[in-house]
Structure of Shootin-1:
Amino acid sequence: MWNLEPDERISESEDENALSSEDERDIECEILEKERDEANEKLSRMEEASSQLLKELDVLEMQFQIERSCRETAEALALKVTKDFKVLKRQSQAILPLIQEKPEHFSILNLDLEADPSSEPVPEEECGEDPLLMSQNQIRELQSSVDRLLGEKFQLSEQVELLKKEKEDLKEKLLLEVGEKEALLRKFSKQSRTVNKMKRVSLLVTEEFSEMSQKLEMEQGLRQHAEVFAHQMLVKQREIQRQIQNAETEKQLQLALSQITDISKALGEIRLCYQSQISQSAGEDLNALTDLTAVKTKLEISEKERSEAEAQLRDSQQSVSALQKEIKMLQDKLREMEQLSSIQPDQSEEANPADPPSLPPPPPPPPPPPPPSSSVTDPLKALRNRKKGGENTTQTEKPAATEDMKSRAVDEMMERIKKGIALKPILRPPQAVPDDENAWKEQRSENRKSAVLELQGMLVSMRRPGPRKVESKKRFSRNVGEAELQMVLQRRRRAMGDEKGTSPDPSPNPNPNPNPSKPKDPPGAGVPVSTSSPWAGESGSAPVLRRLQQNREKRVSRIKASESVIWEEK
């Protein structure tokens, strides 16, 4: 369910972005429509002006045609008049010789000419000169009007050309503006897409970061709790080392240790199965951007397995509590044996009154443990059977102080065994850092081996009668197998049995202390301390730093993958 909320947020953000982009497109379309209407109005105005100019030009052409026709008629009349005048002049020149031949009629002609000297020629000249003057005047007027009309026509043609140029310029500007706006719209759409993709990537990164931070906090809390529990276990282990020094208790502890090792092996197998499943889920998380549903199902499976592992851990804790009860019963037996031994006097009391009464010689060392049976046994059933048998045999009550010390010692021992199983990294890609994973596995195996070696060293140190610091301080190799460890334990048991057989007065507590609540550490107590020091150093902040580095590398790889996806979509 927690993965549905980011999906809803992403869908809401996508819807908002789509609505905002649609609103912006509507606004830009309205602006473009307004500009288109303005350009159409300008074009209509220019068309009207050009149509008016064409009409005026047509009128001027009509007037020019009329004036040209009038001029042609006037020129034709003028040519006709000049021809008539020339004809009359010839006729007059032809008449003059006839006048000299007939002088009797000359006086009459002269009288007629004197009486009306301008009777004949005057009308002819007036008839010829009046149309010429009129035609010339008309021609002049027509020429002036034609010149004026030509000038107006030239001006109007220039205006038409200017208007055409302006129209072309406006068209070019309009085309440029439309292209620029389309380019801006494309850029804006691309930027909006990139912003939406970046928002999605940022949401995914924030979700992953929150998940990783929560897991880191949980791991840190678990580690701190485990360290505190391990420290308590160490304290209890030291206390139980000071008190348990009998062969029977040793045998019971060996059996308990074998059962604990079986439980730890079972827990290790469970942890390996859980880790393999987590590695598979981590490998599938690399494709979480494309298949979120698969990741959800795998997470549910991992949570179920985790609950099963926790249930198994609870069962192991119950077995630990059963072991604690057995240890209490064994300590009751020890107390009874001490009471029996205090009845018999000992020579060591006369020499040193502060020493406690010596116990009877310990029994011979137990035989080597039988080989592990092939049949699978339930440790819980065995513990319940032992518990029933122990309740039938035990009849004395123990004080509260010793009971608390023993329970703390057993809890500390079990926690140290559990501490050998180191915490595992969660959601780690299998191919991210193979070297770190191998180192982490080696470290966990070494931690488990170191815990087992510490317990075995504690058991060996409890059986030693004298302070043999040279052998107790020898550190075991962490890469030794279980068969070799069993061989070493058998050899030491034989050596301890020989030493107990040769020693005249073995004392279970060579360093007595009058205060039983604060006993001194045995000589062999240095072994677990020396062996626990590297374990404590290994459980420092190095795994936490390594996990932080791995988480950082995961985030960087996922961001790079998202960026590559964005560039591929572009």
Notes: The mean pLDDT is 69. Residues 74 and 134 are 8 Å apart (CA to CA).
